[in-house]
């Protein structure tokens, strides 16, 4: 029997995200806005709420302008300084709108692991590898009832964010 890494990976990401410490103990709540390329979509807008409790990130994007991709992730930062590790856990939903078939829907668990760099005051560049696993899927073909794949798919991405 092959080992299944999905439960172990998800558990490890959850523990690290919840136990990790923010960069500063008394960080003031703030908003960050930005753009993301890769990961959950070809291009996405980013909205992030940060505080001493961690951060919640919302990405709204698309792969090919016939779909909508929405991801919500709780993240935590490890370490301090200008370069920090970032771990998270959340959900990603994709709606596909093909012209001649029914709307497709996918619900995916995400565990992004990455690094962010504050290269100038309030300006951040980040890269991540999002480990994703499909939880549920409604395919565009009504005859196709194939269950979601059980494998974990790593999706790389990069982002620029500005803190307000």
Structure explained in plain terms:
The protein has 164 residues and is mostly beta strands. The protein is 9% helix and 60% strand. It contains 1 helix and 8 strands, in the order H-E-E-E-E-E-E-E-E. It has one helix at residues 5-19, and strands at 30-38, 41-51, 54-62, 67-78, 83-96, 104-120, 123-138, 153-163. Strands 1-2-3-4-5-6-7-8 form an 8-stranded antiparallel beta barrel. A hairpin with a 2-residue loop joins strand 1 (30-38) and strand 2. The longest helix is centred in the first third of the chain and has 15 residues, at 5-19. The protein is elongated. The relative contact order is 0.20. Residues 13-25 have low confidence and may be disordered.
